[in-house]
Structure formats: C-alpha cells, structure tokens
Amino acid sequence: MTTLLLNGAAAHIDAAPQTRLSAALRDACGLTGTKVGCDAGDCGACTVLLDGAQVCSCLVPLAQAEGRAVTTVEGLAATPQGAALQAAFHAAGAAQCGICTPGMLMAASDLLAHTPHPTEAEVQAALGGVLCRCTGYRAIIAAVLAAGTGARPSAAAVLAAGANALPLGAVGDALPRLDGLPKLDGTERFGADDAPADALWLRPIRSPHAHARFSIGDASHLPVRLLTAADVPGRNGFGIYPDIKDQAVFAEGLARYRGDCVAALVGERAAVESVRWEDLPITWQELPPLTAATAPDAAPLHPRWPDNILTTGRLRSGETAPPAAHTAQGHWTTGFVEHAYIEPEAGWAERHGETIHVHGCTQAPYMDRDEVAGVLGIPLDNVRIMPSACGGGFGGKLDVSFQPMVAVAAWLTGRPVRAVWSRGESLASSTKRHPASIHASAGCDAEGRLTSFEFEADYDTGAYASWGPTVAGRVPVHCMGPYRLPFVRSQARAVLTNNPPSGAFRGFGVPQAAIAQEMLWDQLADQAGLDRLEFRVLNALREGDVTNTSQKLEHSVGLVACLEALRPHWHALRAARRTTGRTRGGVGVACMWYGIGNTGMSNPSTMRLTLAPDGRLTFHNGAVDIGQGSTTVLAQIAAEALGLPVSALHLVLYDTGLTADAGKTSASRQTFVSGRAAQGAGEALRGEILRRANAGPDARLTLSDGRLRVNGEALRLDSTLEGLGSWDPPTVPLDADGQGIPYATYGFAAQLAALEVDMDLGTIHLQKIVAAHDVGRAINPMLVRGQVEGGIAQGIGLALMEEYLPGRTENLHDYLIPTIGDVPEIKTILVEAREPLGPFGAKGIGEPALVPTAPAILSAIRDATGATLRRVPALPHRVLEAIREHR
Amino acid sequence: MDAYLRPRSLDEALALLAATPGCQLLAGGTDVLPARAGAEVWLHADRRPLLDLSGITALAGIAETPDGWRIGALATWAQLCATPLPPAFDGLKQAARQVGGAQVQNRGTLLGNLCNASPAADGAPPLLALDARVELTGPAGARVLPLGEFLLGNRRTALAAGEIATALLLPRPPEGARGGFLKLGARSHLVISIAMVGGVLVLEEGVVRHARLAVGACAATAQRVPLAEAALLGAAPDPARLLPDHLAALTPIDDVRASAAYRRHASLVLLQRLVESLA
Prior knowledge:
- The complex is a heterodimer.
- In chain A, helix 14 runs antiparallel to helix 15 and helix 16 (630-642) packs parallel to helix 17 (670-693).
- Chain A is globular.
- Chain A folds into four domains: 1-188, [2Fe-2S]-binding domain (DNA polymerase, domain 1), CATH 1.10.150; 200-288 and 345-420, Aldehyde oxidase/xanthine dehydrogenase, molybdopterin binding domain (Aldehyde Oxidoreductase, domain 4, 2-Layer Sandwich), CATH 3.30.365; 501-598 and 739-886, Aldehyde oxidase/xanthine dehydrogenase, molybdopterin binding domain (Aldehyde Oxidoreductase, domain 4), CATH 3.30.365; 605-727, Aldehyde oxidase/xanthine dehydrogenase, molybdopterin binding domain (Aldehyde Oxidoreductase, domain 4), CATH 3.30.365.
- Chain A is built from 20 helices and 33 strands.
- In chain A, a hairpin with a 2-residue loop joins strand 15 (346-352) and strand 16 (355-360).
- In chain B, helix 2 links the parallel strand 2 and strand 3.
- In chain B, the strands form four sheets. In chain B, strands 4-5-10-6-7 form a five-stranded antiparallel β-sheet. In chain B, strands 11-12-13-14 form a four-stranded antiparallel β-sheet. In chain B, strands 1-3-2 form a three-stranded parallel β-sheet, covered by helices on one side.
- Chain B is globular.
- Chains A and B meet through strand 4, helix 4, helix 11 and helix 20 of A and helix 2, helix 5 and helix 10 of B.
C-alpha cells in the first residue's frame, strides 16, 4: 500500500511498489486523464506534477511517490494557474485530438508556477518534453503565453465562456471546439480509457522477422489461451479494398514483415503479461526479405501478384512535347514515415448475443464494421462500432488493428476483451508512409513555360496491400502539381516487399512526388533566369484550365491568389537572408494541389438533423473527429443551413448504431463531402419547418425554452421532424491513361520556408513558414489554421528528421518527430476561392497543409547552399554531403 | 511478483545487493524503465529484481567539500542546475538542460547517466573535462576511479558485482576555469546526440594554461582528446590549432542518426566552436 497526496487528498494505492505511477493512477485510481504514449519518457503524455515538478509518471515507480504530492490533469483546475491554462488552451485551439493535452497542461502549469510571465523560449524549454502530433505547437505556445499574461477567472467561468463566446457559431466564425472541454480536464475517453473492469486482455504475438515461415505447436502449457488462424470464425483476412483481403488477422504459416501478427494471448491481464517469448510454442524459419529493389524479380510474396507489383498507375497527356529550351531531371528517394499519433492503438469488444460491439480509436467506423463482420462471419447489422475519442490518426487508424482480434476473442470467450498496443508494437505493426524512389524530368521554353513532365516512381508498399492501390492511383494524377503542362507521362508502381505495410498517411504518396516536382521547377526557373516564385505564377493552373486528366477546372482555383499573397513575404524574406558566413539563409517556395475525396470513386456521406416535439434539436453526425475539428465544423454548417445557432444543437456523434454512414475521415473529405451533407440536412429540416409554419424562405427561426418559433410564432409539433442530407461528390473514374474526373474539387496552396543552414555542420534552423491555402471557404478559421500548422509540422518532420527503419527505430527516441522547438513561426494566409459544390463554398484542408512544406524546405536549402538534396530526411550528414558535392 | 527492494541506508542496500544476485540498481528510472518497456514489446520482459536507491538519503544532494564538490548518486540534472557552482561547471549545466525534457531533468541522475554507459551519455564529456571521479562503494568499503577508467565501453562500466556507484567527486577547478558544452542532434529537444563536446579552459593573459576537451557519441565511451588539449596549451585559444589528426583516436560508427565520417568531422567543428566560445 502506497500513500500519497493525490490532487490534494490522501490516496492509498494498492499496487506493487514498482508499478509505474502512470499505471497506478490509471488502473488503481481511475484517473485516466494521464495518458500513456510510450512508457519511455519520450513523449511526455503522462506528465504529472510530483511535489510540483513535472515528471513522466511512466518513469516513476509508485514507491517513489510515497508521501509526496502528485497532481494530475484531474486536479489541475484547482491549482492557481490551472483554470486559466485550460481556458487559454480552449480559446486558442491548442487541443486538437487532445491526447497530449494533459501532459502539455501539466508541464505548462509547472512553468507558470515558477515563471508567471514566461517568454516564448521559456515556454519551449518547459514544454520541450511533451510531443504533439496534431497542432504544430504554435497554438500551444500562444495559449501558455496568454495564460501567463491573463487574469485568473474561476475554472467554471472560463470553461463555460468558451462555448458561449460565439453563441451563433455561424459559418466563418472561429468557434472553439464543441468537443473541446473534456480534452482539457481529463474526462475525454480514448481507446485505452474505458474498457470494463472485468475485460480480458489480448496480447498479439508478432513476428520478429521480416520474412519467416513458422509453425505453432501445442500451447496447452501456457497459462492463457493462444488464439491462432484456426480460431477465426469467418474470413481470416482484412484489407482496405473489398476485393483484397490479403492481411490475415493471424498469419498462416508465413510472416511477411517484422510485426506481422501470428497469434494472440488472451486471458487475465497478469497471466497474459507473465508469458515470455521463450514460452511460446512457435518455431521460426527465417527467409531472405524482399526489398523494393529485389522484389520484382523474386518469388511472389502473395500468389495473387506474381511479379510482386501490387498495382501500377499511369497518366498520359499530350501527344508530343513542345520543344524545350531548358531541361532538368533528377532522382529522389524518401523513407518510411510513421504516423506517430501519440495515442497507440487501443480498444475493446464485447459480445451481446449474436451481436458484437467494438469500441476504440478509429478513423473509419463503417470500414471497421465491414472487417469485423467479415472475420466473424456474421451480418453487418450484427456489428456495432462505437468509436472512442481518437488520439490522432493521420491515415494510420484507417486500417484496422486491434478491432478484428478483440472481436474474435470476445466472440469466442463471451467476455469483454481489450487490447492496448505498446508504443513499440504500434511502431512495428502499423502502416507507414510509402518510401518512394522517383525519377523525374521536365522542360520549359525560353520564357519559362513548362513544356513537359515525366515521372516514374516505385513506391514500397510493404507486405500487404492496405492503401497501396490508392497511392498508386493518386500519384500519377497529382505528380505534375498544379501547373499547365502540355505533355505529361507519369507512372507509379506499388511494389510488395517484406517491409511494414505502407498505407494512408496524410497525402497518399503526393508529398513524396511533390518533392521531385518542385525541385525540378527550381532548376528550370534558374536556367530560364526567372524568379522561382514568378516561375510558378507563370505556370500555375487558373480557372478555366484543363488538367492533365482532361478535367476542366471551372471554379475555385486559388493558386495564383496564394502565390500573390506570398509575394511580399517572399521579397522581404529573400532580402533579409544572410548570404555569407558560417550560416547562410535561404528561402524556398513550393506549391501543391490536392484532390478532395476518393479518386474517381463514390464516397458518399449522410447527415441527419431531427427536431422533436419537445424542441430538442439533434444533429446526428457519423463523421469521426480525430482532432481535426469535424464535429465543430459540421455543426456550424448544419446550424447555418438551418438558421439556428450552433448552441441549439444536441450532438449525437459517430456510432454505427446511431448515426448514418459519413464515410471515413480521410482524403480531406469531411468538410467538403460530409459538410455538403450537413448543409443538405440543415436545409431539409428548415424546409420541413417552414412548410409546417407556412412561412417564406427568409423566415427567422429561434429556439428557446424547448419551443421553436418561426418569425416569433411558436411551432407545434406532433411528431419528430427530420432533415436528411446525403451527398457524393461527382467524379468520373480514370481510364488506363489516367483520363477522367478524379475529384470534384481540389485544394491549392503555396508555402514559403525561410531557414539557415550551418555550412560546416549541415544543420538546419527553420526561421519562418508562410503558408497560403485556398480552402474555398474557411468554415472555422481557427480550426483551419490548426490544420495548416499541424500539417506543416509533419512536413518538417518528413523533410528533416523522420525515417522509420524496422527493428531500429521502434521507439520515439530513435524515431524522431518535431518537438516544440522545431516548428518556427508560421504565418497562415487563407485564400477563399469559393467552390460552388462545397458547403458554403468550402473545400478540404487536412492533407493539403502537409504537401508543400518539405519541398519548400528543400528549395530553401538549395537557395542557401546551392545544393540539391536527393534524399529525405535531410539529416545533417546528408545536407553536409550535398553541400560538399555541390562545391 | 517481481522483486522490488527499497533500502533506507547504504549498508542495507549493500547487504541486499549481496543477497540478491542479478538485481538491477534504480535511481531516477529514466534509463532503466524505458529499457524495460522496450524489452516488453517482444515479450522479453526484464525480470531482474530492482534495488531502488531513492530512499537512501545519504546518497542525495550536492555538497561542497574541502577538495571540491560531491554529487550524490541521487542528485538530478535539475538539482545540479539549481546549485551555484563556479563557471567551470557551466558546460555541465548546459548538458543538464539538454538531457531529455524537463521531466527527465527533474528525475534523471548524473551518476545514473554514467552507469547506463551509453556512448551518447550527455553527462560524460563535461564530467571528463572536469576531471570527475566516481566513488564506488562495496562490502569492503569505497574506492574511487577516474571517470575515464569507470567507463569501459558501450553499456560497460567498472562497477563490480556487489558495488554501488555512490557519488561523483569533482575537484575544485583551477582558478579562472570556464566550461562549455555543445550538443549536436537532429531536433531541438529530447534528442540523442549525434555528437557532443565538453571542455574546460583556463586562460591567462590570452594564453591557454589548462585545457580539458572531451568528445561524446564518437566512440564506445566519451573520450578526452589529449592531442587537441596539447595543441592549445601554452598558446592562444585559436580554434584553428585543432586539427583532424588530433581526433584520430576516436572510433565513431554509422547509425540511424549519422555516418561515422560525419561524426568525425562534426566533432572537430564542435570542438573548434567550443574553444571559440571559451576564448
């Protein structure tokens, strides 16, 4: 028994003395506001105060807390700075998914207790030990600075103020998140936070080998049940595409990557955790692993793909290239990039008769439902997916992970079964961004007009298909970028290897392609004697242009407006840069376009609004908010279309048993597609109301005291009124030459990066990013800025530090993502070239934010040093090598 | 249940250590517990009993002694930063502010950092430059080793079975000594060093009279670089006096963070900049 002062009251904790304090707080005290992201002191999500000083509670044995004061996020509001911090985080949009927020708040409260008015540098030093993957940190810094300068209102007052600050929450308002408050006080429930106390634990057994045959012997000596392929009642396979279910829940005799799941232990937690590797009745026979270079000539990894080519995407546009005065070419390579959401995969399942309920973090509840029904061999209607809060996704929680396993285990045992991946397991098993090997060339005429672009790339799609076909589909149509090109030949192949499955990661292969495309433009601009930004203006797509898929862009092409908005910053930053000495300044520019929604495929969404006779107005929204803000944005759209304030809406959120299919949270589609559905739902309900009130289209609605009034007249209802909105963006599938209408609309953007390069060490110091994004219409400018800043932070990681190497970077101290000190000042400029198809003119922003950042950084490095980086991440030794080769 | 022992005195700890073969010593936990989490990922849980030293008050604190300073085995990076110390310790304090994040600095101990014996231990170069010695206490009493003799290799130290590293002993630096530290990593916080250097110089009328320079993450253990020190002694603190040959004894490796050749180059650049900053 350990006694400590927990949030101001004595607590007696009955747990083993070496128990990690984080585990004791969560499991023994029920204080799940303290999050576990790594158990290694690498992420800071578990930060609490120990005698007032911030510590990682995962690194404190419970016994060391004996007799000491421990403050968790649940006790924060009662501390002098706590409520002000929570209010400031809410107002600034400093919490997106919310998984790092408790750690950030605790670290910040330690700082403010000692330094009430900190500088930005002091904030960075104090919060440097907490990783955030969503926000890009700038809003967090702003929030801490604001809390340090502001008054100290009461906790209740400030938390209430956030929601009521903008009671209308109309389209265009920077409304704080509607789902924001639980993220600030520790009450939000993520995948690992709410399983029943009597749940069994499931622990996957994964291959430590990239490629190995294995056999599983008698497991009766184990203290728990060992589930294997033979236990899967339905189809032992899952995968993104309806016709490709190539990844087994439990592999059958052949492990195809390090991390491939071959079996699972299921039982009481202590018994599961007592099993050692050497206890397992598994024998392994290692095989030589296939790489992207060797796979096309090797024996097939899957019989279905004899040449190990999963798919090839192509685009042919133009018959012959006009003559070029200047040409450029190059080869670029990128590595695996890990999503590194701070919440590892977690969830649980429970059988209810012939129905299964699956809870946990996900981006795609309806796809999860299909997979679970498939592996259990039961009808879709017998599966209910009830997503928890999702602590970051970025594409990595589109594929199922724990869902089929816990479903099978719960189905067979009749007990609730839960699973929580460790950080190492999450890194080893989850999908990654595809590594790309790209050969590209381009030409322009003497005036700088582009004449041709040719692109050939192999994308390492890993051991299973996952989203590989999508990447191969998106890349050929995006890889020339948002430019007028009379001649394009592009091809992207997805190559199966014994690497982790490459899946969906913010941009689906486009960020890799954009690096090659934009680096070629810099070379051509120099040869043509043009300013690099003006070169892009000259060649930019404009309204009325026809793309290389033969799609005429009738509306909402804001790229030139983005570049023009950047122009004064470009000149100022260029003029200010240091061009001699040990550190040299450089400014880079890059553009991007991004098709919103699925590529040439249906991806509908349905939203529902109801008004009950008692005046209860309910918005049924099945779009999963993984931190990006769709819960708030879609409510703003629905309310605006209906003509009532957002505060009038009761929210029923994503649950396949309660909400209609809104599709997955991916492809930057929720604002555009589900937004349009939400607008439709709002308009439909308004139509119903006006019809019953016999009122004209401009009638004013009000709702108070449970009574809806139309132009001041109360509306009596006998039954519930419903407004349903469904929308599917109009597209035309691509033909074999990549011709068609792949997307109903595109986001456009241009970004500048200003940085300094240490010419003797090859280190990069980012100074500023200026980002201009055409979002059609910013439904909620604060949330849009949050997406831009977060995307930029991930682009910085891609450019400068992130590279996943199986077996070598399976933790967050060897796999580096940007910290609070690695994201410079960001200036975001929102361009609103209205999209008539979108809700109130809006398009998507999630992925566009990331795409131009890495190429802009590489462009700036070239500006500073003259050297062209051929490989990312641009680690210091690679930068120095490139500088030396250039000299 | 895995054994966990938390003695209240050094004698008790030594007795438990003798009676508990194969146990692992624990102080701040910032290296021991991450390693255990890493092993658990592949079901190789480390079941060694833990001998937690944190309850032994005699091992706490940083104290000035007639000869210098005694840094107890439980003294943390944060406590070091909060202790008034002469300018020779500035490099050690700079290292302290760059070990992990603030959470790790509040918990991690200087001595634990050395006992963990990572080639990239941030404490090692500045402590080598301060002529630190390590006090090891066993059943037969205490012995003291120079830090360079305590660090034997990657994850290897001279700590013998039955011994506990009880203190760091730092001699009083020469009059006028100033210390510095430079760390090179691929991000700004929470980063394992690609290379780092620590140094202490004494200048008299523009001439180097005392020089200690050490390089980390460029060999199995952090290393003093005597040829570089000798090149400075008796001359002006001119960074150009430091040459690649002075670092020939380093044995850097290629890993996920950098190439060996880069480390060799960068360590010289860092040393030159350190000398420049102390000149």
